[in-house]
Amino acid sequence: MCGIVGYVGDRPCRDLLIAGLEKLEYRGYDSAGVSVISDGEIDSVRAVGNLANLREAIAQHGGDGGVAVAAPPATIGVAHTRWATHGRVTEENAHPHGDCEDKIHIVLNGIVENHAELRKELQAEGHEFSSETDAEIVSHLIERHYDGDLTTAVRAAFAELRGHYAFVAMHLDHRDTLVAARKECPLVVGRAGEENFVASAIPAFLAETRRVLTVENDEVVTITPDGAEITDADGNPVSRDEDEVTWDEDAAEKGGYPTFMKKEIHEQADAVAETITDRLPGLDSVDLSGVELDDDYLRTAERIMIVACGTSYHAGLVGRYAIEQWARVPVGMDIASEYRYREPVNRPNDLVIGITQSGETADTLAAMRLAREGGSKVLAVTNIMGSQATRDADAVLYTRAGLEIGVAATKTFVSQVAAMYLLGLRLAELRGTMPRERIAELVAEIKSLPSKIDETIAKTDKRAAAIARGHADRRFFLYLGRHIGLPICLEGALKLKEISYIPADAYAAGEMKHGPIALLDEDTPVVCVATDSPVLDKVLSNVEEVRARGADVIAVATEGSDRVAEVADQTLFVPRTDWMLQPILAILPLQLLAYYIARENGLNVDQPRNLAKTVTVE
Ligand code: M6R
Known about the structure:
Elements: E1 3-8, H1 14-23, E2 31-38, E3 41-48, H2 51-62, E4 76-82, E5 97-98, E6 104-112, H3 115-124, H4 136-145, H5 150-160, E7 163-171, E8 178-183, E9 188-191, E10 196-199, E11 211-214, E12 219-224, E13 227-232, E14 237-238, E15 243-244, H6 249-253, H7 260-266, H8 268-276, H9 295-300, E16 303-308, H10 310-327, E17 331-335, H11 336-339, E18 350-356, H12 362-373, E19 377-382, H13 388-392, E20 395-398, H14 411-431, H15 436-447, H16 449-471, E21 477-481, H17 485-500, E22 504-508, E23 525-530, H18 536-548, E24 552-558, H19 562-567, E25 570-574, H20 582-600
Parallel strand pairs: 16-17, 16-18, 18-19, 19-20, 21-22, 21-23, 23-24, 24-25
Antiparallel strand pairs: 1-4, 1-10, 2-3, 2-4, 5-6, 6-7, 7-8, 8-12, 9-10, 9-11, 11-15, 12-13, 13-14
């Protein structure tokens, strides 16, 4: 999750910009940069690593820009913290990016999906690129369209881009103007007297102003010291009222949410969009070209083994269903800390997938190393560039969830599941195990997941809070599910245990009568994942068994599935999607339920007792 700050006004701005970036540091980044217009040129400094490195690079570069001491300090500029998605973590790939003449500089958050084709076109026209990023396309596109009016050029460039992103542009010939545009990624303007800010999040300028203008999707905004003019994508003026932000700095870091966990729950649509967008470039294909695994290897691998811990293990379980069903490859699953001690049989034709959001979990790393020593190829599915898992693996599939601060994994889980869906589809495509039409159906459904995730959270949030109020004092919860519902039960129960400290168990519903049914009485809430699937009837008969013991049933069901609502005491509905994709929606109300139960009990959900975000000890 990158960060953007821009400033135009009458104050020296380089320190203001870096102070703004500091307020966005919590989002995570691996490099940073700042460009200002100073003494007739754009002065740009970028550095790999943290903002201290950027400050040092600026100092070495020569204080306020390496220009003559007598030059007036810069009063317009853009700055950025980058979380690498396209291109390695290098100074060249850090933002801002310039055009061929170094007159236009841009900073961008998000992903430009059609960057490869635009790059080719621009190169054919003679544009020269200096980075591997998708973002650099934007400065060259603006250059292509620039004819004296920066806003018009930005709008024309914006019209050619696909993906989800927000960017800010600055031109040497317009020393009092920044132009920004937004497609899905957030963008806000901070209004002050004779100066204005633009940023990806309010904390970047909260120390300077609390007057905020929100830029909406498909809008372009032109910012000068006098004000901000918003237009739609066709250039029609849009009027927008200012909001007065009342948050304190702590709340601002959390985007106005009371906790990081709640903020991260609400970032899930974005996390999944970042993970899938440019990997589903067409109607019926998956592009995993960034993952350096030979297509032939994927086509011929005889078996897949997934190793992971905790939440990542649950994402692996969902992935197993998808891969086996779609690509017909046998998939084994193991908890990483068990796998490494059972002398597993690895063969060169096995693909071993290590799933670890941090890329640093000791048991998962050890399992991956063991698999490699046994001759298998190892694919890491991780969220963190440069992590140990990326160095130990033969290939890496990045989830792009951004930094997760809450100890409880939420947005990293849904992006892992999304990554496994992509892998399952790619394997099916390569191995010819699914008709094109079915692949196309699934691609369309996966593309619609981000908006369905937002819809699910919006629709279930209050209901989950109400259910939590009624159950926060219960001493034990049982989670029951079948097939793809089972990993969601395991994950829902893990969320409840780790943040509310209430004992919970998750079981395959068919196993209930082999023991756990003895736990049930009228004081036991039973959470059932009963989304549409070929096993729904069986799940419903398990629900009847539970109710016959007087237990209180909380069900997660697919919208329109009245049969579930008839047998459950409370139902949390999620939007309809392909049944194999329902897990990514079904987990959302269960995260919310666990969250609200913990909050009802006054607990610190961001930092539960006894837990660390990354477990580096074996
Ligand atoms: O970084 P990893 O994905 O390897 O972490 C594995 C587990 O420690 C982690 O998923 C843990 O279970 C979650 N934080 C729980 O919410």
